[in-house]
Amino acid sequence: MPDFTVKNLMTDVDNSAADRGPGGLEARFGRRHMDSDHLGVSYFRYDPNVQLGIGHSHREQEEAYLIIAGSGQVRLDDEVFDIRQWDVVRVAPEVMRGFRSGPDGLEVIAIGSDRPEGGDGSMVRDWWPD
């Protein structure tokens, strides 16, 4: 196996949200395609004005999110922040986080650090109040 990987998140990685019904989200998780022991890179695209209401946190994995297009909000525990193109949000593992898109939608690249085998995420539905 070479010491590098070249993958395209749009053509080499399936949309994991495609079979989960309507909801206005595209999600492409690149970690398993990268052959990396330490990194995960994923792409998320939210349609305009989407609030899925889902939050998640981790036991061990720190993440950073780069807003590449659009705008919206990120909720970090009980605080809500406006986000826009080129903002970077770093989140410690234990912080509950979730996104909602603005009128132009939202596109996000997520970069994750090491994680235990099988993952370490915890999801909470209906976490983001209306």
Which descriptors apply to this entry?
130 residues; mainly beta; six-stranded antiparallel beta sheet; globular
Q: Main sheet?
A: 6 strands, antiparallel
Q: What value does the average pLDDT take?
A: 90
The number of strands is 8
Helix content: under 10%
Describe, in plain words, how this protein is organized in 3D.
- The strands form two sheets. Strands 1, 2, 4, 5, 6 and 7 form a six-stranded antiparallel beta sheet that branches. This protein has a two-stranded antiparallel ribbon with strand order 3-8.
- It has strands spanning 25-29, 40-46, 55-58, 63-76, 79-84, 88-91, 97-112, 121-124.
- The relative contact order is 0.25.
- Helix content is 0%, strand content 46%.
- The model has no long low-confidence stretch (mean pLDDT 90).
- With 130 residues, the protein is mainly β.
